[in-house]
Amino acid sequence: MMGGGGGGDTFTVDDALLTLGFGKYQYFVLAYAALAWVSEAMEMMLLSFIGPVLKRIWRLSAKEQSLITSVVFIGMLVGAYSWGVIADKYGRRKGFLMTALVTTLAGFMSSFSPNYATLLVLRCVVGIGLGGGPVLCSWLLEFIPPPNRGTWMVVFQAFWTVGAVFEASIAWAVMPTLGWRWLLAFSSIPSFGLLIFYLCTPESPRYLCLNGKIKEAMTILDRIAKVNGTEVPSGTLVSDDDVVASDQDSTPTKRHKQGALTTILKLLSRELIRPTLLLWVVFFGNSFSYYGLVLLTTELNAGRSACAGHKVKAEETDDVNYKDVFITTFAEFPGLIIVALTVDRVGRRLSMAVLFFICCVLIFPLVFQQSEMVTTGLLFGSRICITATFTTLFIYAPEIYPTAVRSTGFGAASSMGRIGGMVCPYVAVALVQGCHETAAIGMFEVIIILSGVSILLIPIETKGRKLSDDVKQKCQPV
């Protein structure tokens, strides 16, 4: 609670959330965001299952198989930035409504693809929809009180793992019997749930407050108070912009909706350009490594068997070793436990850097040919580390940016990650199938090390900090 320019008591959205606490209302918001995260995880994880099958059925080359994954990331590259701009300009709800519509329709229709070209187009459109994931993260983040932010964002990220494990389970049950089309159809079901419950979702009070819609923001805060059994603080609701202006004895300026160019210029402003560019590097490396390790799980042992001269044996086996994929997917759970223990104690940057470097140590032995058991074990350990960095990064990135550019900044960084996901199949699939396993693992090593160094160079630690609406207030170095 603080004094305003007019002498009366004022409070910000963060002050209100601290008073209202994390209660039943936030559980509903978390449940909706979690459903979206499960949906995105399932649509992404199925790529490691359908590629090898379609390669055999449609007689695809290694590069054509890799393109099935890459086109999804091309779509996400477009969607991550576009939906972020829409969410910052028109609201979080409109942003994730459009993403849910695109993902649901294109995801379901892709199960009817008559040929390779049609599948590529539809999966690219699915990718455009999936690019809206950062909008959901920003929306959820803006409902959580600062002391609970790290913990509950870890809980939210856990639903990605739930979706990944669920997809591995469905693939194991469906693919050998019903085939890949049914897997695509089943994987689109959670997205339909997002459309069904959309009307119940609220707009972010922080977004409304920043855009001068104080009455609407207060209506949502009053609703949170009623559901949680608490009370909104007394006084006048203001944004952080107004607080800063009041502290500087200046009149709060009227806010206007900003265009895409204005938003990008803010991301590249003196206060934000360093963390923005470094975040782009980290997102590229993290996505490249995460999705690359997923693909390596299905490719490494099979590729080495073929390169060793056992091609007939490899062709007679299943398209995918579902057991190995299922086992390594469970590595995400200990990764989440590590994040829960470190994110609010050690801090975001240091914990990510350490985990990146441990991941490098674990995948280095894969430069040399290992037994299937050792390979699976090393990939399991690497997946633990990269899942932990992935989870922490999705907590850390939106915390860096002020409300006015949060979705756009997070979306732009996520777009760089999509480029990493776009490139990784040509390393994890094409290089391995071309018998260049050592070169593939070497590229993973270099990119992961670069990511670890880059995260340490970002001059902001957000552990324990409040979210802000003001660029200069938010981005002071630690």
Automatic annotation (TrEMBL):
InterPro entries: MFS_dom, MFS_sugar_transport-like, MFS_trans_sf. It is a multi-pass membrane protein. The keyword Glycoprotein does not apply. It comes from the Eukaryota. It is found in: Membrane. The chain crosses the membrane at residues 27-54, 66-84, 120-141, 153-174, 180-200, 277-296, 325-343, 350-368, 374-397, 409-432, 438-458. Its main location: membrane. GO terms for molecular function: transmembrane transporter activity. GO terms for cellular component: membrane. Keywords: Membrane, Transmembrane, Transmembrane helix, Transport. The keyword tRNA-binding does not apply. Residues 29-463 form the Major facilitator superfamily (MFS) profile domain. PANTHER family: MAJOR FACILITATOR-TYPE TRANSPORTER HXNZ-RELATED, SYNAPTIC VESICLE GLYCOPROTEIN 2. This is Major facilitator superfamily (MFS) profile domain-containing protein. It comes from Gossypium raimondii.
